[in-house]
Model the fold of this input.
Amino acid sequence: MTCLPNLTTYLPQRVNSGPWLTAYTLFELRQRIESVQQLVLPICPLGSEYTSLAELGELVLPPLFHEAMDDELKSSLLQRIRECFPYFHTGRVAGQTSARLDIVEVTKPAPVQTVRPRVLAFSVDTAVEEHGPHLPLSTDTIQSYSVLTRLEEEVDGFIAGPPVEYGHLTWGLPFGLSIDVTPELLTRYVTGFTNAVLEWLQPDAIYVVDVHGSLVHRQSIVAGLEQSRANRWAFRWLHEPLIEFASERGDQHAGGVETALVEFASPELIDRRWFPDRLDEIEAGEMSLEQAVELTADLPRFIEYAESNPINGIVGKIRNYESLDAALMFDRMLTVARQDVDTLLSGQPGDVHQVAGDSPWERDKQSR
Done:
């Protein structure tokens, strides 16, 4: 038993419910945001209780942590977040909103932590990223923590700590309600966050995961870990063992694979008004990888295309779901994570997974 903040009060338990903005779908937020007067971004100490942060506004973005930033990095991150959210400024024609984004600084010290993990794990995912009309924004975090919380149950001394919820993305920006942290800022924040949790909990090792497909995002995470004070750490892209089910079938983002894995985590995380009842409409709004990659090079054009065409943010194939075994895919993710943790716990030098991996998508070296 630990005295860390209770992640079950933060991680989405049900789609389109509660104060955390990341539990909502793109389509639901498009409607809600017109009536919401206050969107809140908390900046708080590590260890702050999520229940208290949830009371700060009508809809609350994932927190940033004081200990992970100096003043210059904080200023740069906030400037970038304001550029992206709720709608990316560059090239934006429609979709404006009167909702106000307030930065709330929480200065009350968090309770002192006495736990010292053998392995402290966290994800660095793009939690504020649209995932079509039927999946919550935090689809990536949901998948990562379905693995990490299972390992926490299985492995003595393994603790799933608070996630880093901001990362590098491109495809979400044309649709709005997504936040991109540039690669340089992401590397700096990962370094600061890693150093902060090392000082906070003094774990023997650090284990970091993500499921987001961008190679640049993963490279930025690894660079941040390399520049930190962590002596023993591992990083894993959890979708690496799923390539045959995802990219090889043209199912890159918010399609069948992610739908199946989120549903496996909890059926209540799927908006049933859309899936599976309106499967034909979801399918009609898909983009191909080729379309997405072509438009990524010209973001204003991508935004114009998204605003003038009936597309829904999915880059993939929703009907891939019909031929997938979610339990098998989850087991593959869990297996590689178990192997990583076993290696970390062995205490032997080397052999830990510290690479970002390759891009599994031909022609897709920079997108997502």
In short: DSSP finds eleven helices and eight strands in the chain. The domain at 111-346 is CATH 3.40.50.10310 (Rossmann fold). The first helix runs from residue 26 to 32.
